[in-house]
Task: inverse folding
């Protein structure tokens, strides 16, 4: 998923999600979450296209998709109103899978 100019421009407005633990089998993410809104989690591997992997995610979020060791996995989160308006988008956080 490509992000619009609005999303790219707002990248620096919110802190990056915290990657709590990273392994080939799973990574845990922690991020701020307002209970009255919806959080989407996005991921890309090795600089590929961003993909939304969760809608209405809770923190901590566990990404259980497996990746080969050495893969660079990056995440960002967006918080939306229930009407679908983007409130903020985090900076990018990533790690290299062990």
Result:
């Amino acid at each position: 998923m490509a992000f619009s100019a609005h999303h790219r421009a707002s990248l620096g407005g919110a802190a990056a999600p915290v990657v709590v633990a990273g392994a080939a089998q799973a990574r845990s993410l922690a991020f701020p979450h307002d209970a009255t809104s919806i959080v989407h989690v996005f991921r890309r591997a090795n600089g590929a296209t961003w993909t939304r992997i969760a809608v209405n995610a809770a923190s901590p979020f566990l990404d259980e998709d497996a990746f080969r060791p050495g893969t660079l996995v990056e995440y960002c989160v967006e918080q939306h109103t229930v009407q679908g308006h983007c409130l903020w988008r985090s900076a990018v956080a990533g790690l290299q899978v062990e």
About this structure: Helices lie at 5-9.
